[in-house]
Design a protein that fits this description.
Four copies of one chain form a homotetramer.
Chain A (H helix, E strand, L loop, with lengths): L4 E2 L10 H9 L12 H14 L5 E5 L2 H12 L4 E6 L3 H4 L4 H4 L4 E4 L8 H13 L8 E8 L10 H13 L4 E5 L2 H5 L8 H7 L2 E5 L9 E5 L8 H7 L8 H10 L4 H4 L2 H16 L3 E2 L7 E7 H10 E2 L1 E5 L4 E7 L6 H10 L1
Parallel strand pairs in A: 1-11, 3-4, 3-5, 5-6, 6-7
Antiparallel strand pairs in A: 2-8, 7-8, 9-10, 10-13, 12-13
Helix pairs in contact in A: 1-11, 2-11, 6-7, 13-15
Chain lengths: 344, 344, 344, 344
C-alpha cells in the first residue's frame, strides 16, 4: 500500500468523493428495497435520457462478472451459446460463470481484443449450413466489450456493422462496458451512449472501475425484451437488498455529466505515459488508446521494473518476453505519473 | 418516503454513520482487489477472535440470497439436497436460487420457523432405511436461520442438539445469520458467536440488515473445509472487485463491539411495541422476541392500519385474517415508536 | 429369479414377443440415425392417428425419468417451477433430476396420488396475489401422471377441469403416461388417447412398463410448441443414435391395436387378485383399479408374506403397519396369479 | 434405404445376430431392474476379466453423449473443466451437454484428432503459474477418444505418456471408446483393454457403434473412485429401468471374444477401400487406420460421388475442397465394398 508506485488496476481506490457525499447525505432516509426507491428511479431516468432510450429497462447489478453471467443466462435459450472474442473477459477471467449457467462460449479469433462483423457472419453461416447443426450449439448472442480487455476501441462503423449482422440474423448484441467511462473520455472514441442505445440489445455501463464503490447499470433499450429479469437477478443471488446504494451512485455519476468527464484524468495520464514510454523506446503489445497500456519487456527488465512499480502481469510471449499492463484511473494522481515517468 | 410511518423492513436506511465515516477516511487509499486488502484482513482477524475460531476461513459476500446460494452449492455434492424449515428463506423468497445451482431443498415441518433435531434425525433415518434411497435425494446439509424468518430464536440447547445430530450423521450445519445482530442484542438469546463457531460448519454474520450498506461475512470455522471457495464465489458472480468496501464495513462493525450493541435499539423498540400491542389487545401470530413482530388482524383492521403505517404483508390465515409484520432496526427512532404507539 | 413368486414391479421381463420379432426382421436394414428413419416415421404417424393430433411433434426417449427431466426443462423458463402432487414420481424417485435442470418442483397435496383443479387454481392465485411474487418461483407447468404412482386414475371430467385451469392461466399441462396402457385397458378409465391429445400440451405414452424393451413416446399435440427440442434432447444425453430401435417398438405397439390390448392381462390379473384379497380380508391403502395393488399389513404379516412373494415395499404407516405393492404386467402368467392366491 | 450405397456411418443397422438371439432366449425371465440383474452381473465380471481390473465399478449407459456427460459431470468438481482436443466429440457434436452440466471444455490443439502429453503438461503448468488462476477454470480431467473422431489411434506409448502426466498432476484420465472395437481389431493398434484398465481412471467400451442395439459400458478401474454414481446416473435420466437389456448385450459381446473380433470385418473392408482409393488417386485428409476414411475432393467431384454413395459430410477446407467420411462397420457386406470400389 505504501512506498511502491501502483498502476496494477483501475479499481484500487474507493469512490469519487461526490458519491460518498451523496451516500452520507441520504443515509438516514427510509426507502423501499430492491431498487424500487426514488434514487434508483431518478438514476434510471437520467441514464435513459443519456442513452436516448426513453423506454429502456434498467437494472443495477453489483459487478461485471455478475452482470455478464446474469444477462447471458437471461438472453440465451438452453440450446444456444454466446459468441465472444477468445480474449473476452467471460472467456478468460470469470471462472466458468457462463458455463455454470449452462451455456457454452463460442470463442472467436480476435484482433487486438476485437471481433469483426465478418467473423460473426461466417460463424453464423457455418452453423446454418452445417447438416449436423442440431447436434451443435447455436450462436444465440454476441458479447463484445468496449473498451476491450486490451484497452482497444470499436469504431462506430465497426459497431454498426456488428449490430447489422446481429439484426439480420436475429441474434442479440450485448456489450460489456466495464470501462465505458474511459472510452467516452478518449478522443479516439466515436461511440456514444446513444449509439449503444441504438446498436445493442443490452449493455452495461460500468461503475466499479469508473468511480463507484461498486455497481454496473444494465440497459435494455427495448422495454420487455427480457421478461422476468427481476426474478432471474434474484435467482442468481444478484439482487441488492438496499438497491438505492447502487441507485444513488449512478444518480451521482449521471448528474452534471460526471460519468462523461470522470475518465478524462485517466486517459490524459495514460497519454502522458504512452508518450514517455515511446520516447524512452518501450514497445507496446498493441495500440490501446484508453486507460490501459500494455508494454512488452524482456524478462529481466520486467522483473526489475516490477520491483518499483506494481503492474498487472498479462502474459509471457512465445519469444520469451513478458507483457505487463499499466492501468490509470479516475483517481490517478499527477505526482504518481511524474514519479513513474522518472522510474522508466 | 415522507409522511407515513414505516416499519416495513429492517433494510430501509443506509449504514451506521461510523461505517460511512470509515469509508470516507479510507477512500483514496490504494489496495489490492478481491478481498486481498488489509482492511479485509483486519476484519477477518476480528471476526475470528469474536467467534473463537482462529483458523476460520472468512469471505465477505454481498447479500443473503447470494451467500446462501453460494454456500449451499459449495457444500453439497450433486446427489445431495439441503434440509430446511419449509419457512426457511431459501425455500420461500429466493426465487429458486438453490435449484438454479442444481440442488433440491428438502423442506421440513417447522414450529414458529424452527426445525428440531428430532425432525432432522427422523428424516436422515428415513433416507438411510429407504431401500430405494439411491433413487432419491440424499440429505447433504442442514440450513437454519437465527433469528428465524419469524423472528424466533433457537436456544443454545436446541442448537447443540441439532449440531449433534448433524455431526453424528456427517452432515454439515449451515446457519443463516441475516439478522444475527438482533439475536445477539436480545435478552432471551443464549447463543453467542462462539457457540456458532463451535456448532456450525459454516454460517454468515449478517451485515445488510444489521447496519451495513450491504455485506455478509461467511465464516467457516474449520480451515479448508470448502476447497476452492474463492473460485466458486467468482463463478457465482459473487466476488466483489473492491472487496475492501465489505472489509471496511465489517472491520467497523467488529471494532469496539459495535456489532454486539447495534441491535439493541431495535430490540428495545420492539419490546416497547410488543408491550403496547399487548396492552391494546392485539394478538400475535407467535412469540418473537427479536426485531420482528407479527400481528394478526381481521381484514378491515389490517387495511385501516396499513393506511397509516407501512408494514410487511405476511400471509392470509385460513380463518380469513391477515398477518402483518412490523420490523424495527438499528436505525429506528424513538419518535417513530411513539407515533406508532399513538396510532395503534 | 427362481422359486419365489414375483410381483415386485411391472418391468421385470423383456418385451412383447411381437416386438422382438420385428427387431429381428428389420435387423440388417440400413437406416438413418437419430430417429430420422422410416420406422420411426411410421410409428409417429400411427401415434398421431391414435391421438387425433395430425400435426403433433413426436420424439422417442429411452425412459420415464429422462422423458420427465427433458420435457420439464424444455417447457419451463428459468424463473418457473413445475406443479406436481407431492407423491409424483418427479418428486419422489428421480434423484433430483428436475433440480439438476435448474427448476423447483412445487409440490401440492394429493388425494390418492391425484391433484385437483382447485388446488392448482388456488396455488396459481396465491402466486398471482403475492406482493413478493417476483422473489418466488412462478408456477410454470403442471405435471400429472395417469395412472398415478398409486395406480389410481383421473376421470375425464377431472382431466378436463385441470386442463381448463391450465389454459385459463396459460400454464402448459404435461402428463406422465409411464403406465398408460394399464389405464387404457381398465374398465374404470374413461380417458382416451384422443382426450390426452386435446387436454395436454405434452404427454408421453409409456413403453418401458407396457411391453417394450425400453422407450417412451413424447407427444406434443401442437407442432412447434417446443422449439429446438431435438437439440435439447441431445444436450440431455437423451438422443438415441439408433433411433429406429425405439421407432420399431412403438410401430409394433401401435399396429393392430396392440397398445390398447397389451394392458388387459395385467388389469384382469389385478382384478382377480383384488377380489381374492378382499375375500381373504386384506385391507387396501386406497382404491387402485389398474395394475398396482397396495395392501396394508402389520409388520409380522408383511414379513412373512415377503418370504414367499417378492413385492414392492411402499412405506411404513404412522400406526406401525406396512404398505406393500403388488404389480401385475402384460407378462403376468395365470399360474403365477393362482399360486399367489394360494399363498394369500 | 434402398438403391444407393451407404457408408454414412457405423450405426445404420440393428445388432449382431447373436445379441438378438440372447435377447429372445431370455425375454420372459423375470429379473430385478436398474442393472441389478444376473445378466448385468455376468457381463460386468467378463468385462472386469477382459480389462484386468477385478475391482472395477461398471455401469451400462445408453449412448455416447450420455456416457460422456454423466462421467464428466461425475468426475469434475464445480471449479474444474475438462481438457479435450478441439475436435473431441464433446466439443463438437454433443450440443453443449457438458456445459449443461455446468462445466467448461478447455479445448486443446490437436494433431489428427489427438492431443499430446506435452500439450496437457503445458496447459496444466500455465494454469498453475497463472497469478490469476483463481479467476479461471482449473483443468480437472482429460478427455481423449480411441479411436479418435478422425479414425486415428493413440499408440500405447502416447497413452502411457498422457496417463503419466495426468497422474503426476492428480488429474483423472477418461477415455471415450465409442468405436473401441475398431481399434482392437486394427493391426496398427497396440492398446489393449488391459492397458486402458491400467492407464485410465474411467473409460467406456462402446456398444452402440460396435454391434449392440445401444449401450456403452463405463469402466472405473478403481472401486469407489466415483461415489454415488448410481444416483448421479439416475439424476441425469440415464438409468435404464430394464438394465438387463444392456447387460445381456454386453454379456454377449464379451462371450467367446465377440467384442475382439466384431470389428475385423469393418477394418478389413476399410483396408480394401483405402487401397482402392489410393490406387485411383484419391487423397486422404489424414492417415486413419480404423473404420473411418476421410477423403478430400473438390466440390464437383464430391457432389457427383454423393449422388451414388451416402457419405458423411465432414467439412469444407479453406482451399475450397470438401472432406467426406466413409465409414464401414461390423455389418458391412463384401458386395457393398465391391460395388463402392466400382463406383470410385
Amino acid at each position: 500500500m505504501a512506498g511502491k508506485l501502483s498502476f496494477a488496476s483501475d479499481y484500487m481506490e474507493g469512490a469519487h468523493p461526490q458519491i460518498l457525499r451523496r451516500l452520507a447525505e441520504t443515509n438516514m432516509l427510509k426507502t423501499a428495497g430492491y431498487g424500487l426507491d426514488e434514487f434508483s428511479a431518478s438514476a434510471k431516468e437520467k441514464i435513459r435520457a443519456a442513452c436516448g432510450t426513453p423506454d429502456a429497462d434498467i437494472f443495477f447489478l453489483v459487478g461485471g462478472t455478475q452482470a455478464n453471467a446474469v444477462m447471458i443466462d437471461a438472453i440465451l435459450r438452453p440450446w444456444q451459446g454466446v459468441l465472444s472474442a477468445e480474449t473476452g473477459h467471460i472467456n478468460t477471467h470469470e471462472a466458468g460463470a457462463v458455463e455454470f449457467g449452462g451455456h457454452r462460449i463460442l470463442a472467436l479469433p480476435h484482433r487486438d481484443g476485437k471481433i469483426s462483423a465478418d467473423t460473426i457472419r461466417a460463424t453464423v453461416r457455418t452453423y446454418q449450413q452445417d447438416e449436423n447443426r442440431d447436434h451443435t450449439v447455436m450462436p444465440g448472442m454476441v458479447y463484445i466489450s468496449h473498451p476491450t480487455e486490451y484497452g482497444t476501441l470499436y469504431s462506430l462503423a465497426e459497431l454498426k456493422e456488428i449490430s447489422g449482422v446481429c439484426r439480420e440474423n436475429h441474434i442479440p448484441l450485448y456489450l460489456d462496458g466495464a470501462r465505458l467511462a474511459y472510452a467516452l473520455a478518449c478522443p479516439e472514441n466515436d461511440v456514444t451512449l446513444r449509439d449503444l442505445g441504438e446498436c445493442c440489445d443490452a449493455f452495461y455501463i460500468g461503475g466499479t472501475k469508473c468511480g463507484a464503490l461498486f455497481g454496473e447499470a444494465v440497459v435494455i433499450p427495448r422495454h420487455g425484451f427480457i421478461p422476468h429479469l427481476f426474478t432471474i437477478i434474484k435467482q442468481h443471488g444478484a439482487l441488492l437488498a438496499k438497491g438505492r446504494i447502487a441507485g444513488i451512485q449512478f444518480d451521482t455519476l449521471f448528474t452534471d455529466g460526471l460519468y462523461f468527464s470522470i475518465g478524462r484524468t485517466a486517459v490524459e495520464a495514460a497519454d502522458r505515459l504512452r508518450k514517455a514510454l515511446t520516447e524512452k523506446g518501450y514497445s507496446f503489445a498493441f495500440h490501446s488508446p484508453t486507460n490501459q497500456i500494455f508494454i512488452v519487456l524482456d524478462r529481466s527488465a520486467a522483473a526489475s521494473l516490477s520491483e518499483k512499480v506494481e503492474m498487472g502481469f498479462w502474459e509471457n510471449t512465445e519469444d520469451g518476453r513478458t507483457v505487463l499492463r499499466l492501468a490509470t484511473s479516475w483517481a490517478t494522481q499527477t505526482e504518481d505519473i511524474n514519479a513513474l515517468i522518472d522510474v522508466l
